[in-house]
Amino acid sequence: MNKVLIVGLSNTHGGVESVIINFFRHFDKKKTQFDFLTIVDNPSYKDEILANGGEIYRITGRGENAYKFYKECKSFFKNHAHEYSAIWFNTCMLSNLVYLKYAKRYGIKKRIIHAHVSHNIASFFHFLLHCMNKKIVSRYATDFWACDESAAKYTFPRRAINGARSRYRLINNAIDTCRFKYNEESRLKIRSAMGIERNAIVFGHVGRMDSGKNQEFVIEIFSHILRCKANSYLLLVGDGPDLEKLKQYSIDMGIQNNIIFLGRRNDVADILSAMDVFVFPSKYESFGISLLEAECSGLMCYTSDAVPLSACVCDNVERISLTESAEFWANKILNHMLLDQNRLTYSQIIKEKGFDIVHEAHKVQESFITK
Fold it and tell me: Is the residue at 179 inside a domain?
């Protein structure tokens, strides 16, 4: 059986992890076995991967112990590289090319690097490593994939994208459009479970709780909305280092009774159906899965201008500058809210524009096999 090694799964339910697992769920496991190499003890979706025939190999992280990382990484590829026809390396930064280097040294012929962000998300030191490795990544990768053009330009040298022998491809961050289609029954069920009245206006946000996603600003925007629309609630879905800080901020603002922190959830599609408006003021963002899912659910979506235009797939997205105040955002949202639009039509639009996972997964799987 054809086997592919996947690298890039962490222990958080972030955007990259969502992309990987979305594809994994829809690959034909009869044609290809997908194994994972990770540096964490409990990678996201571990039980699901194992239940679907995938193997998970864990090595020590470079930040944990650099000597053990290089030793264990080399040992893994020396002993297992012959089993794989391809390696699919998912990354946000080029600060570490070791996986590709060993994959090449030990004979994995197809070496795919998949870029997921278009900006620096780490320290200045890692950014310097990224800039240096960008110049040499073509020595080790054979194929260059990206979620959008901005991520490609940030991660790959120009010749890898535009060269005569370019193996560059845009891979859509696809989703299950049927699953994220608006569902009235789910809307009523979620609202009932949370004690939210039928006629209340529900604002929402989905994302890792950290400064880059700007949830503190979401809460500030909501505080202004609440002054005009008292019968409103804010649902915050996600986990992360800023969770407790954000809970305290909602208390300090005196609006904690109207904000529901839901943490990490497996029923995000149902929760999106329960919302009316999606607020996504990221400080930096590539092609985010969370926004695409919200669009698919037919929500009115208000994003920052840091979100690339390519991520605004439908006409239910409005970008607002982060230089504007929270009060400006609140007024803009309240003045442009459309609560009576036909939410059922958007999943079909997303599908027709090439973001349905069933179609995309088939194309990606075939590319693992073709030379």
Answer: no
